[in-house]
């Protein structure tokens, strides 16, 4: 059941105004409330629902019977007292007047946070209720109605959303056709043997794989939908869910004259080129202390960067020094990673005897510096991975020491 929209008409002005209604907004509002309990907080988001813990939409809500829909809500308003408006698009920022324009009215701010996230990339497919991109809680509800009862669902896209949904759906009485551009699942991130192992696992679990395939079009009719591949083949299904990545929502920032380069450019304090405006989350391109300038589309960054942005909105003046990790859970296998996972790099691997737990280090072929660390079924070692990258960058870690740098146990 959806939680109701808390507010339909915002105040005329706020001390702290957040554009975007996702996890970044939630973390920021909670941090603001801690630093400045008396500051007025407004949140205006285009999502139709209040902030939720987004990873659950492709993970726990499908795989953990004890995790219920009631547990996805982040209780932003309840815990912060913020005014929240859902389902409203912000049309413009007037930097001189310290105002935004939304739904035909102006809302003032003392300080503004852009937490606009990203827009799912779309394919050339019909506008049909049985074809959906996947981003919000409303998308989850819609997919739930389409899934089960041995319905056949085509999952398009081999990244986080596609791989997680393919695994989730097949475990919920759904026939799954998983369509992705790589020959092996995650072959653009994992060592080839691990990508093969994962691909075999999907097949063993009953997922029908259409590898090395792109969708170029499709049609919808009374009996279902039909997708057209780049080879000219037709794929029939009852429904399709698309997860082929996102494009950062930078239009507001661009129109306002802020610096934009594959995201809204911020400094180490998460401040944009306007000192009254900060940006955080998927939309922000920030200077990572270990990895250089980054734009990160993962929940850990949304939570941590949102928290720091909220503190800084309220005057804390603290740099964002955290290097986020990313993770996924695929048929009970959990991986965590820091940095860039490029299998064309020089790989150093350390696996347990049964090959169920492993650590993979991705080294730059020229400098020998570790650019990324993959932890496969190795929990609680992300700090160790950060330390490896830092020590490697400073020359304090010899290549021969990598195989023992992080234990697989």
Automatic annotation (TrEMBL):
<dbReference type="InterPro" id="IPR050446">
    <property type="entry name" value="FAD-oxidoreductase/Apoptosis"/>
</dbReference>
<dbReference type="InterPro" id="IPR016156">
    <property type="entry name" value="FAD/NAD-linked_Rdtase_dimer_sf"/>
</dbReference>
<protein>
    <submittedName>
        <fullName>Pyridine nucleotide-disulphide oxidoreductase</fullName>
    </submittedName>
</protein>
<dbReference type="GO" id="GO:0016174">
    <property type="term" value="F:NAD(P)H oxidase H2O2-forming activity"/>
</dbReference>
<dbReference type="InterPro" id="IPR036188">
    <property type="entry name" value="FAD/NAD-bd_sf"/>
</dbReference>
<dbReference type="GO" id="GO:0071949">
    <property type="term" value="F:FAD binding"/>
</dbReference>
<dbReference type="Pfam" id="PF07992">
    <property type="entry name" value="Pyr_redox_2"/>
</dbReference>
<feature type="domain" description="FAD/NAD(P)-binding">
    <location>
        <begin position="14"/>
        <end position="306"/>
    </location>
</feature>
<keyword id="KW-0560">Oxidoreductase</keyword>
<dbReference type="GO" id="GO:0033108">
    <property type="term" value="P:mitochondrial respiratory chain complex assembly"/>
</dbReference>
<keyword id="KW-0274">FAD</keyword>
<keyword id="KW-0285">Flavoprotein</keyword>
<dbReference type="InterPro" id="IPR023753">
    <property type="entry name" value="FAD/NAD-binding_dom"/>
</dbReference>
<dbReference type="GO" id="GO:0005737">
    <property type="term" value="C:cytoplasm"/>
</dbReference>
<dbReference type="GO" id="GO:0012501">
    <property type="term" value="P:programmed cell death"/>
</dbReference>
